[in-house]
Amino acid sequence: MIIISLTASAQKRISLIDPLATKETRALAGNLLRLSKNSILFGHQHATEYGHGWQGDADRSDVKTVTGSHPAVIGVDISGLSGRPKDEIEKNKADLVKNITDTYNRGGLSTISWHFSNPASGGGFYWKDSVSLPAVPLIIPGGSHHHQYKDILATIADMAKSLKGKDGSLAPVIFRPYHEFDGDWFWWGSKHCTKEDFITLWQFTVSYLRDTLGVHNFIYAFSPDNKFNTESEFLERYPGDQWVDLVGMDNYGDFGRDGKYDLLSGIKKLRIVSEYAQKAGKLAAFTETGLESIPNPKWFTDVLLRTVITNGLKLAYVLVWRNDATSATHYYAPFPGHPSEADFKLFYDHPFTLFEKDLKALYK
Description:
13 strands; globular; alpha/beta; two-stranded parallel sheet
């Protein structure tokens, strides 16, 4: 593994959409851009919260147990910050703050997804016919649930402004709301709101967090699923360069889901993302992928590494989905004894991939 030492000069190569972004957030963005030219950070969702057959152990992750290092990027979710009793929300907020600041103190990076339970109906974050309401027009300005949405954003802002590391600085995070919006499985999906309402929602969310509530440690990430084949399709619901810092893609379907592989298609879509980022002065990332249960024991080298190392791609990180604590089959990273363990160690050892132990001064 290679140790990366970074300098603040990388900050000059990218401008964030928040002119008041903290110096650590600006440094992170510049360093991610620099690293993406010759490497990629590996990420895992909920890596330190739980894993295959365990939950809540201190300083543990399945990735660390296999390799000796946590992932460079750890995904968390803020689904627990709304739609629940106040005391439960406060506990969830405290747990998030600890998880994110622990990662920051170790030198790693957190990315926040948001499986946002429908604020206007039952059905949770998934769209359920006859249960879910199309909530996007209800929570944007002028909608019946707009004030409720502002209260939810205030809770998120309070969490963000509580992310103080041991050095007293705020931990920067990648905030990735309303992901996979081009599908129809979430209530914010393309079949459940107009393009105009989705863009209004995105712009209001960023503006309210940044300009009204004073959150200055977020890098804002835009990530559809893999339903596009051209740049214009990728940008169909794009809110504008002044509202996005990082562009990405979630893609399981081209990388082995249901036994189907189409790496050429997956690489083509990643190239669209990467080339747009380079053209627009943004970061790019492979924001979600993976193969459930990892039935292909060489998936990490033959599929994932082969993809992200493709010439011309400049991706800051790739994140695989979570390892469930109780399910025997729902996992996306290996654990000791899994048939893909040896291959994952090769993936870890490759100089192109970076894990938490490889990162030095990511925020300077």
